[in-house]
Specification:
By secondary structure, the chain is an all-alpha fold. The chain contains seven helices and no strands. 12% of the residues are buried. The model has no long low-confidence stretch (mean pLDDT 85).
Length: 109
């Protein structure tokens, strides 16, 4: 089953919070504060690291769960690049190759 890129709206609704209230807790000010939350929830904009960590505090869930689909994409991309890097390094650095194999095996679905 494919995950949504993020579960921000779902968690906001479960918490009975408005976009304005979430924006306030994220430190948003000005007339466009709720539009920023809307852009995060619709995946048209990725939040900063500080905002993602604030969401973790607000909803009490780890960032990797709040952004499950994005996390899966990043995990797959890193695993592919680690595998490619492993092939490149195998002959030159056997010890580094072993650590890359550990990364690949951890990230494999």
């Amino acid at each position: 089953m494919a995950s949504l890129l993020n579960y921000l709206r779902t968690n906001r609704k479960r918490s009975a919070l408005s976009q304005e209230e979430v924006a306030f807790m994220l430190g948003g000010i000005g007339e466009s504060k709720s539009s920023r939350i809307s852009r995060y929830e619709s995946c048209s904009r990725e939040p900063t690291l500080a905002a993602a960590l604030a969401y973790e505090v607000i909803y009490g869930k780890p960032v990797r769960e709040l952004f499950a689909g994005l996390y899966e994409q990043v995990e797959q991309d890193v695993a592919k690049r680690a595998k490619l890097l492993s092939y490149r390094k195998r002959a030159l650095h056997p010890k580094r190759h072993e650590s890359l194999i550990n990364i690949i095996s951890k990230a494999a679905p």
